[in-house]
Every structure is written in C-alpha cells, then in structure tokens.
Design goal:
The structure is a single chain. The protein is α/β, with parallel strands linked by helices. It has two domains: 283 residues, Mur-like, catalytic domain (UDP-N-acetylmuramoyl-L-alanine:D-glutamate ligase, 3-Layer(aba) Sandwich), CATH 3.40.1190.10; 131 residues, Protein-Tyrosine Phosphatase, Chain A. The strands form three sheets. The chain has an eight-stranded mixed beta sheet with strand order 4-3-2-5-1-6-7-8, with helices on both faces. Helices cover 38% and strands 17% of the residues.
Length: 426
C-alpha cells in the first residue's frame, strides 16, 4: 500500500459523522499551516454541476499552450488519488508524486491535531500547501461539492469565478430545486471579481445574477456577452473583443463546444492575454479521460465484439444524461450502429432522470454493480428504473459479464456501439 493511501485511510477516522458543509475547519487549518491559501498564484475557481472537469481541462490546455505554468486541483480521480493534484512544470504539468503527497499529508495531519475534519478538506489543504511552494502562473481550482461552503471557497480574490451548467445533483447537501442548487454554486462569486457563466436554466440564472449584483461582480454570460457555436464542423466564438473561427474541440459531444467556449470566455475576460494560436492548440491538445472517451486498446476492447466501438463517460445526473445521449445520437446519425449501454450508478443519483434521454436510442441497457462502493444501486433495481422509461434492460454481474452478453446477442447487424457510463467508479 502506498504511504499516501495509508495516511488517507487513517484520516478518514477524523471525518465528522455526517458531511456538514462549512468553512470553519479548513479556515482554522489554513491558519495553523501558515496560510498557504494567501500565497497562491492567481486562481480561476470553477463550480457547476456538469462540465467542470472538461472546462478545467480546456483551461489548462490553452494556458499551457501559451507557455503558462498551471497548478490544477480536481476531483474525483479515475485511477490514482495523485491525479487530483497537478503541479506546474516547464513544458506541461505533472501529477504530484508519491513522496511529495505523503509528506504533505503528514504535515497537514500534524497541523490538524486529531480534530474532526473531512478527507476533502485535508486534501484541499495539502493541495494549497503544494501550490504555494511551487511556482506557477495560474491555479485552476475545481469545487468539490456545491461552492458556497466547499473547502475550496476560502479563496477571497480569485482571478475569475466560473459557473458551468447547473442541474439537479447532490440534493441531500445542496437542495432539491435548481434555484437552491444555483445559490450554492453562485457562492463562489466574489466581491468585484469577474464571473463567467455558461448557459443556465432560467431559474438558475436569476439566482446567479442576484448574487453578482450583491457582490458587485461583473458577469459575462453565455449567449449574452459571449457566444460559442458549432458551424460547419468548426467552433465559432464571439464576444465584444471580436470573433474567433477555431477548430472543433478534441473532446467529443456538442456540449464540449459550450465547455470550450466557457474556457475561452474565462481566459479573455481574465486579462491573461491568451493568443488565438494558444486557444487553437488547447482545443486540439486537450485531454480529459472517461468523458465521452473512446477506448481503442485494453482489456475491455479485447473482450468486446469485433470492431465494436467502446465509449466511457462518468456522467451520472439528468443533465449529463442529456448531453451524453445527444452525443450518441450525433454518432448514430453519422455512422449508424446499434447502441448498447452498460450502466452502474450510486443510489444517491436521479437514475430515472439520467435514463430518460436514452429512451428510443439504446437497443438494450445492461445494469451492473458499482465496484468498491456500498452506495451502489442494485443492478436489478437499476434495470427496473431504466425499464420505466421504456428501455430494454438486463441485469449483469459486471462490466465484463455485460460485454460477454452483448457479444452473444449481436447477430448480423453492424458492429455495436457500447457506452459504459453512470459512475466514475466503474
């Protein structure tokens, strides 16, 4: 076991009985660590329900293409916890190494002195310590949950705040309505600092505008102050500073035009002087694994039917369901193939809302358990929910088992398109 993993396991014992979103623990810990949050490079703070990770990935790619050094803090990780903390280096960043992470976690653990604290607060503190010690031009800081009371929100004067599309998710902690959730997301808007806002539901936009007015923060709103559209296979971006005719984003899906546009608007409104050439390079070089990512090698590809397409996406809420279904429909229009879904989800998610956009699109849904998570929804129950929207379903024991069943099912059709989705834990 890696040292850092053992430390994180030990720190879990300090976790409060229930998650109570508050800033007092992280604020106290920052003081005990010598206030690294006050010594960070300029911060771009990113909140939202969907698209946070992709927008952050676009920001990093464009900034690094311009020659900037970029620290990045994101969550959750796919394979290794180290992916959450990216340290700036010449020529591109790197994930924090094991010794560096373990030593910093021990330092933070000692400063905390056995007091109650969440693991996310501890790791956020560790990221701030590392970012304060290593030179960079910009920090990209992704909110963990909500915004207003998230541990990342102790940053008082960000270079810019960014709010990506908002939809229903994490209702237990953020509220059950769009306007309640928007109030939490809008909590990252700071006094007098610019806020860049992606397309939003009307009720969310009203809340964001009210908070920006209260904070006297200039807003730059999609489809009002800036526009990003897909035209003839290109990304056309326009704001008051002019028009950019750009290549399409490397990331797949119509929603990625919105995410890329949000990143471009952020960089242009932050006064960083990013060139069109750097923006183009970032669009072409961006990487964000398991977000409509096509697999071409590996054990899953080897197990799938011959010539099958395999796509991964960790989306798990109704808004994500819409954009993933749109992407699958676009692929179907260009290259028709029968769509099979392999889905595992946590029992805290709006599974009915996630499945609804796939009605009439997927030939069959194979439901699977979520590995290593006690909160995973039972595949039989998940299949019943998918069936409620008219989808043909079949519970399976695992992703591998579902792939075997798909291979046995297909006949003389075109090779299948297989979408594995519903949770990053898959």
């Amino acid at each position: 076991m890696e040292r850092s993993h053992a430390i994180l396991e030990r720190l879990l014992r300090l976790h409060p009985r229930e998650i109570d979103l508050a800033l007092d623990r992280i604020e106290r810990l920052m003081v005990d660590l010598g206030s690294p949050d006050k010594r960070l490079p300029p911060v771009i703070h990113v909140a939202g329900t969907n698209g946070k990770g992709s927008t952050t990935a676009f920001l990093r790619a464009m900034l690094e293409a311009s020659g900037r050094g970029v620290h990045v803090y994101t969550s959750p990780h796919l394979v290794s916890f180290h992916e959450r903390i990216r340290i700036a280096e010449p020529g591109g960043g790197r994930f924090v190494d094991e010794d560096e992470l373990a030593d910093t976690l021990i330092e933070v653990e000692r400063a905390n002195r056995e007091r109650p604290i969440t693991q996310f607060e501890i790791t956020t503190a560790a990221a701030f310590v590392l970012f304060a010690r290593n030179p960079a031009d910009v920090v990209l800081l992704e909110v963990g949950l909500g915004g207003r009371l998230d541990a990342t929100n102790i940053i008082e004067q960000p270079l810019a705040s960014v709010i990506t599309p908002i939809s229903i998710d994490h209702e237990k902690f953020l509220g059950e309505t769009i306007d309640e959730i928007a109030g939490e997301k809008a909590g990252i808007i700071k006094q007098g600092r610019p806020a860049i806002v992606a397309p939003q539901p009307v009720e969310a936009m009203a809340v964001i505008e009210a908070e920006a007015t209260r904070r006297r923060a200039p807003l730059f709103v999609a489809n009002q102050d800036w526009v990003a559209t897909q035209e003839r296979g290109r990304l056309v971006y326009q704001d008051e500073d002019g028009l950019l005719d750009l290549p399409s984003p490397r990331l797949i899906g119509r929603h990625q035009y919105t995410n890329a546009g949000t990143a471009i608007a952020t960089l242009r409104k932050s006064g960083l002087g990013i060139s069109a050439q750097a923006i183009e390079a970032g669009l072409s070089d961006v990487e964000w694994p398991a977000r409509l990512q096509r697999l071409t090698t590996g054990s899953l590809v080897a197990r799938a039917p011959n010539e099958a397409e395999i796509w991964l996406d960790g989306g798990h809420n109704p808004g994500a369901g819409v954009v993933i279904a749109e992407a699958m429909a676009d692929l179907e229009e260009r290259v028709p193939r029968p769509l099979y879904m392999i889905v595992g989800m946590l029992n805290t998610k709006d599974t009915l809302g996630f499945f609804r956009p796939f009605a009439g699109l997927a030939r069959r849904v194979y439901t699977v358990p979520v590995p290593s998570s006690p909160a995973g929804r039972d595949p039989v129950e998940l299949a019943a929910i998918a069936g409620d929207v008219g989808l043909s379903t079949e519970p399976s024991d695992s992703v591998a088992d579902a792939l075997d069943r798909i291979r046995d099912e297909i006949t003389g059709d075109a090779p299948p398109r297989i979408l594995i989705c519903g949770s990053l834990y898959l």
